[in-house]
Amino acid sequence: MTKNNIEKVLDLTPMQKGMLFNYVKSGVSTYFVQKSVKLTGNFSTQNAILSLRVLSRKYEILRTSFFYKTGADPKQVVLKNRDIEYTVIKADEDSLKKIEEDEKSRGFDLSKDSLLRVAFVIHDDNHCTIIWNFNHIILDGWCMSILLREFFKYYASLQKGNSFDFIVNHLESVFDYKEYLNWLKVQDYDSAKNYWSNLVKDYQENGNIEPRLQYEQTDDNTGIISYFPSKSLINRISKLCLVNNITISTFFEFSWGLFLAKQNFVEDIIFGKVVSGRRASLQGIEEGLGLFINTVPTRLKLNEKLSYQSHLKLLYSQNLESEEHDFYPLFDTMKLNDLGTNLINSLFVFENYFIDEDALHAPDNIEVEIDNKQEFTEYPLSLSIIKQADYEIDINYHSEIFSKKEIELFMSHFVAIINDIVDNPDKKIANMTLTSFEEKKKLKDFSLGKNKKTSFTSIIEQFEHQVLLNPNTVAVKDANGSITYYELYRYISKIETKLIKSGIQSGDRLLILCNKTIDFIASVFASIKCGCTYVPVDKKFNNDRLLFILKDSGAKFVLSDFDKILEDAKCINVKQIEEYAEYEQSTASDNPHLYILYTSGTTGTPKGVLVKESSVINLVHFLNDEIYSKYSRTNTGMLANQIFDASVQQIFTSLLFGHTLHLINEDLKFDPKTLWNYLNINEIKILDGTPSYIELLISENQGQLGVENYLIGGEKLPPQLVKQIYTVSRQSHIYNVYGPTETTVDATYYLCNSMDDTLDKIPVGRPIYNTKIQVVNNQSICGIGMLGEIFISGDGVADGYVSFNKKNYTGFINWGSDKENGYLTGDIGYWNQEGQLEIVGRRDSQIKLNGHRIELSEIETLLIHMHAIKTY
């Protein structure tokens, strides 16, 4: 660039500044656009090259370079003389893709290169492809139709015998880009700032869609999936828009926003929309070449009680207001929200500048075929609606982030949404259809666990069966000793007799306040034998919490392993129960509730979950078939605290099928080195635990650990931990289990694969027996890869909470059109393409600590009641 060759120096538009900033920051020519035009017929390359020279003389934007240095405002410099760069290549059509990729890889140097570059690929005497490459910083999509039309106009003129000089001397005047720059300078930026500030105010969601399906390696940086809607569908869309007095662009814009919101499980979404920038009242701007477009935010706030039509009208009103301020720089808009550059993560483009081959005025002896796909690479995901003879819907994506299969799913979901809007414009958002009919069938297969009948219906009868089969087998072992099945049965009967003599009745509720010992196990089974519902509590609970649970549960008896006095309850120390000459047996009627477990409550008050005996039987039936039945008799280790539901799976599955249960107390649990030796010496084959604890244990790494089955749950299971477990337990089976207390310990399971090193996250898997898992959004079933709340129904669902009222009963609902009874967990997840459930987080303020669900509001409530803490 020399001074003598400089024609003029201009400022940059805000959009150009943003593109230049990204270019300088990354060092990569991100905004690369490519169009391929296939020609059939006798084509003169020489006249085509001359036509390019005519274009560079006519349009100053094609002679523009960019000057920038640190500390100075960047400028665009129009050169007096600069020809459009071109190459002529002889190659067959099979080589075309590589040539196109080579052009993309080369990119552009914004300060040195011709920013429009053309490759003439000659296939044979009658076939040629012209590859137009340009940087978005000088031209927008609208320009391409003008550029091609002018190119063929001058090519036809040259073919007719007109000379290059004659054509140049008779060039028409064109729109001066400087006029647009001057127009931008006089706009009311204060008013625009105020408008956009209000639009993005209080927006806190991250609209970025994370890739959720397994990534597939590809050599391409970008990809595109296209869908061609039928004329019938377009006609129905047009009719709907006409009835509601909105534009087709608004219809697709709303559909895209709805897709993004539902994909991310949010009710408030902001995404970018490309506007033409040519609404300025400047003569000739429609025929001007240059970058006029801008990107502005669209905000969609969903109201589940409003219909599609209502939302469409609201968005159209927003668009009309936004048009008055659509010149405002996006970079400045981003500063108006705390998310900054993360405010927009997706783009919507409505391309109504279709390049019509018939309108290009190409010579009659040449047939023209144009690739009308537009590339947008600045955002990971964008939607382009191309208005042409037939509409085309394109999803453009970064292929280093998303797989082709995932984008195909996105397109399927998007098409399902637009069809649902057209077919049911009065439908409320809460009831919308998010998937195709084919995907619904697949989701149904994912959602259902095996339908299996249990081999027994009574826990006590099954336990007594084991006593007869294995009377001398050690049933339970704790830190103080062990007890056989026969001895345990006698101990249980002794406690049962004491309870009966003390006046307990079938259906009563019974607090068990014991350490994790044989006393606790005997107390649990004695409660069940009496037809009572047991309520396990921890000695570490303060008196206020104990009294609350006592009152809330309605318990009248307390079994403990020490002397404890609680008001309004009869306390029995199991260690002081005398031997009876004759045991009494309960004549208990059926009591459906086996136990009550208290979990952290959203109101700041613990909630007691009523769990049925049949639910526990269903759980142990599954666990036995999947794991325990591998052994005629084995040793199992219980790490879980006895007041948490993880203890249930080890206690009952071990003792109802003749195994030996090892109760690992806190001292041993938190001495990993000693525990490692204990597990090996006692040949423990099945062990439960949270990922946090198993990681602590594995960190000892004292050679090989004999555990063959790990039941891991309560927290996210890291893939690295799975690898570490396989290092010390080479032949082990690792089960990642998931389920809230309200669905009886485990609702899903996933058997990890020691050979799979590709997983970056471990699923929680598929439903257990007689269980149904659905990922839902309001009253809609979510598609594969689509975030939603996990709804669990089936045999494992509890009977609700002890203290029923609407305020704390929201989790147990009748969902969907069939009013299916189940539990809405508050956990957010999705189905992956293999039909495995994956968990990503929670929708409320609950957290998991050491596998236990904790409600932050409960901690807040307790803190407020502490005298040493003042609230302001």
Automatic annotation (TrEMBL):
Residues 463-801 form the AMP-dependent synthetase/ligase domain. Pfam families: AMP-binding, Condensation. One of its GO terms (molecular function) is catalytic activity. Gene3D superfamilies: Chloramphenicol acetyltransferase-like domain (3.30.559.10), N-terminal domain of ligase-like (3.40.50.12780), Nonribosomal peptide synthetase, condensation domain (3.30.559.30). InterPro entries: AMP-binding_CS, AMP-dep_synth/lig_dom, ANL_N_sf, CAT-like_dom_sf, Condensation_dom. SUPFAM superfamilies: Acetyl-CoA synthetase-like (SSF56801), CoA-dependent acyltransferases (SSF52777). Residues 7-443 form the Condensation domain. GO terms for cellular component: cytoplasm. GO terms for biological process: amino acid activation for nonribosomal peptide biosynthetic process; lipid biosynthetic process; secondary metabolite biosynthetic process. It comes from the Bacteria. This is AMP-binding protein. It comes from Streptococcus ratti.
